[in-house]
């Protein structure tokens, strides 16, 4: 599926409206002036007020400048979730530079490829890798700011980053690319009563998803620009997330479907002992959500609370759907609310309702480009239409339904099979934690469907075959199963099926 979170996340879905804008650093200063003692960001038992966050990031910005960071730089940031991540971002923005977030678990080869694309002057992380850039922690930056006893937390000259963020994506190829936001590091000077993510100034927003991923990063930007209290969880844990919502009386939370699945598979008594009545909004995006899981959450916490968005990090167009709409259009990811989308056939023609094709997107007429790639080339057709590789169809009411990514599609005996459909069916089994479905070569059918399963308890291939008997047509059912202990999806709910397939083909080819 396409990645997510349109625009910078700081204001609304997509391009900035015609309104007075200020830099992200100036917005933080504004919050510090008007609500100095309001909680800005919490993680664990530590909380910084807006005044504290503003002063601390002033010092850190000076430390970054001493380390050579300048206006317009991309600064690679590989930190785990925590207050330090938020501090580092605002310190970077205050210099007019751009945060370039990466996973703090990134292997050396992938990190080096990203560094080469970003041309970052430094890497802010705690990696153990030997790399050809200065590697510093937030504490190191603070030490540079304090050299010579000059621990200056006064305001810096205002600066605006030409690019608000530069997340990475391996897509289906596994080769890293940078997606440079088309929007500069600005936000609305006047904070709207309700922001684009249904965030309000008095929202208490719990974020268990990884900040290095584009969705989590955009949510962080939105919450801080709105002046909310952002609660960043160091890592996702299903019960701890429910406990945090109850403890904080949270009004807003963002999760990915993998997290939803793990929460739902908690024992009923565990899940039901937490009071979630404070929640006004639960967003989920980033990956396909199985229909059974979506409906379970809608019934549990309310149809007006559960919200879903589909878009790419590239942010050309957006669909949104509420839980109430979903019950009327089961399986949909919503109607287009920004830009344009259409389904296109293999012959290049626009498809009518209910015909499956490749989904193409186009930004709103007259809007500036929403992104720029480094390390990749966009797939564009005449008229400015772009594809992220997703397959789907629209119904007569304009609601979009996604099948899968074209590159992940499996051709079995001449029939198109979409892994996401099989994965969703398998994840309904109570003993299945997560699944990745791939196609492996088959002399008879061209490909055979192979299911890689991370189980919660004891389950056999026969158990899963029986489970699927009434859920999927026979040609969609896996011919082989493999059980693994390690997670199949990353912290953001992403699975790289191409990498899993390549690893198994390599094993098959070895003598």
Notable features of this structure?
4-stranded parallel sheet; Rossmann fold; Luciferase, domain 3; 14-stranded mixed sheet; GMP Synthetase, Chain A, domain 3; 14 helices; 3 domains; 511 residues; alpha/beta
Give a verbal description of the structure:
This protein starts with 20 loop residues before the first strand and ends with a helix. 28% of the residues lie in helices and 26% in strands. The protein has three domains: 21-328, Rossmann fold (3-Layer(aba) Sandwich), CATH 3.40.50; 335-406, Roll (Luciferase, domain 3), CATH 2.30.38.10; 410-509, GMP Synthetase, Chain A, domain 3 (2-Layer Sandwich), CATH 3.30.300. Helix 1 (24-34) packs antiparallel against helix 2 (50-66) and helix 2 crosses helix 3. A hairpin with a 2-residue loop joins strand 2 (39-43) and strand 3 (46-49). The strands form six sheets. Strands 2, 3, 11, 12, 13, 14, 15, 16, 17, 18, 19, 21, 22 and 23 form a 14-stranded mixed beta sheet that branches. Strands 5-4-6-7 form a four-stranded parallel beta sheet, sandwiched between helices. The protein is α/β, with parallel strands linked by helices and 511 residues long. The model is unreliable at 7-12 (pLDDT under 50).
Estimate what percentage of residues fall within beta strands. 25-35%
SS content category: alpha/beta
The percent range for helix content is 25-40%
The number of distinct structural domains comes to 3
What is the mean pLDDT?
Answer: 89
CATH top level of the largest domain? Alpha Beta
Overall 3D form: globular
Helix count? 14
Low-confidence stretches: 7-12
* Amino-to-carboxy terminus distance: 35 Å
CATH topology term of the largest domain: Rossmann fold
- Indicate the radius of gyration in whole angstroms: 23 Å
Number of strands: 28
In the CATH hierarchy, the architecture of the largest domain is: 3-Layer(aba) Sandwich
CATH superfamily of the largest domain: ANL, N-terminal domain
Can you summarize the main beta sheet? 14 strands, mixed
